[in-house]
Write a structure and sequence with these properties.
elongated; mainly alpha; single chain
């Protein structure tokens, strides 16, 4: 009897998809906010000059990544009938790429301390081979994962519209390429990172809204 009651109280798949959709909307919006807050470069001087913005943006990035990680499984469930192996691969890669970027973002919380006490360590840490490899895996996983998942979503058209898939596929690589170029010495191209974040954020938020409005499962 207790088992039946417990089962009766369990949320349906449709309810979980709807909740995951709202989480994905929040994650997409916060991703754009974090990029708008983030300074266009992270040198010892700019880190100290924009400390509040830098730390705040990384905090928002981490929250955004966590929300996206919570929402992606719901997106996969909603679109699963049409995603196939391509969509599964994209989901797994995007999930782990996002998780690695969330870990990488933690550097933003200690960067101001290092910039103030030992500014030379900023570049040393950035060029340290294990850090380069870790960040490389994170970036490639994030970009490739959302490109593959976005294409699969655009093809499936189960719940989420084609446009959302294309936005995800275009936004993730645009954001990180623009982010990397700006940080490596061309801050005038920071607008590419902002535009990419807006495109990816729109894809995530639009997907989440459709999941909430019409879960389809």
């Amino acid at each position: 009897m207790e088992d039946r009651v417990a089962l009766g109280q369990a949320p349906s798949i449709s309810a979980l998809v709807r909740a995951g959709g709202l989480v994905l909307v929040a994650g997409g919006v916060l991703f754009v906010v974090a990029t708008l807050l983030h300074p266009s470069q992270e040198t010892p001087v700019t880190i100290l000059e924009t400390e509040a913005r830098l730390v705040g943006s990384h905090a928002v990035y981490v929250v955004s990544y966590v929300l996206v990680l919570l929402g992606l499984p719901a997106l996969y469930v909603a679109e699963m009938p049409g995603l196939g192996r391509l969509g599964l691969n994209g989901f797994v890669i995007a999930f782990w790429g996002t998780a690695l970027l969330a870990i990488s973002s933690m550097f933003g919380f200690i960067a101001p301390v290092l910039a103030g006490e030992a500014p030379g360590t900023i570049d040393s840490i950035s060029m340290y081979t294990p850090v380069v490899v870790f960040n490389g895996f994170a970036a490639m996983g994030f970009m490739a994962g959302f490109v593959i998942l976005g294409i699969a979503v655009a093809k499936s058209q189960v719940v989420v519209p084609r446009s959302s898939g294309f936005l995800m596929a275009a936004g993730a690589p645009s954001h990180l390429v623009g982010f990397g170029i700006a940080q490596l010495g061309s801050p005038t191209l920071w607008f590419v990172a902002i535009l990419g974040s807006a495109v990816l954020g729109a894809g995530l938020a639009w997907s989440g809204y459709r999941m909430w409005a019409k879960p389809g499962v």
